[in-house]
Structures are given as C-alpha cells and as structure tokens.
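Support request from a user on the community tier.

User writes: "When I paste my structure tokens into the form, the page sometimes reloads and wipes my input. The last time it worked, I copied everything first. Here is what I submitted, just in case something in the input itself triggers the reload:"
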C-alpha cells in the first residue's frame, strides 16, 4: 500500500512481529490489513478476536499523512472501548537536524 506517513520519531521499544497487527488508513479513510479492505465494524470484530487470542497484541496504525483525524480516531475509539490499549501510530523517522 502506498501511504505517505507523517514525520515523527523513532520506536521506543521493539515488539515481536507476531504480536503486531498493522492497520493502514488511506487518505480517503479506508481501512486495510494486508491490502484487504475492511469496514470499521469488520475491523473491530477482527481485532477483538485477535486481541482475545493474543493479549500481547499491538495494533499499529499507519495513517496516510493526508488522512484526516476523523478517519482514524473512530478506530482508536473502538480499540479502547474493547480494551485493546496497546496502540502504535506509525510515522516516518525524523530527519536529523
């Protein structure tokens, strides 16, 4: 998926790959996992099931920098309502100054 991530910092800690589920949000507000599109309701159901199966699950949200907050805030809200609190927001590494 071709996303332009906002600039940010470096990862603070490493998480085993098997504990990470990446959700892409494109600039139109569509949600994808592994290039498969999901509605917000479908995504919520899937992530709740995965969180129940793996309590160490981290949901990594990769939102296009041109995506509006109104596209990914509902996802974060659904995660928190379902006690999926291990959330990571992906950015591009900052350029050294």
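"...and here is what came back when it finally went through:"
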């Amino acid at each position: 998926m071709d996303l332009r991530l906002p600039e940010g910092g470096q990862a603070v800690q490493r998480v085993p790959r098997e504990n990470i589920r990446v959700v892409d949000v494109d600039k139109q507000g569509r949600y994808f996992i592994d290039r498969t599109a999901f509605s917000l309701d479908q995504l919520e159901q899937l992530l709740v099931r995965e969180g129940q199966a793996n309590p160490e699950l981290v949901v990594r949200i990769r939102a296009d920098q041109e995506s509006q907050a109104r596209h990914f805030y509902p996802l974060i809200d659904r995660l928190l309502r379902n006690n999926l609190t291990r959330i990571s927001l992906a950015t591009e590494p900052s350029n050294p100054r």
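Agent notes: The reload is a front-end session timeout and is unrelated to the input. DSSP finds two helices and seven strands in the chain. Residues 47 and 91 are 21 Å apart (CA to CA). Escalated to web team.
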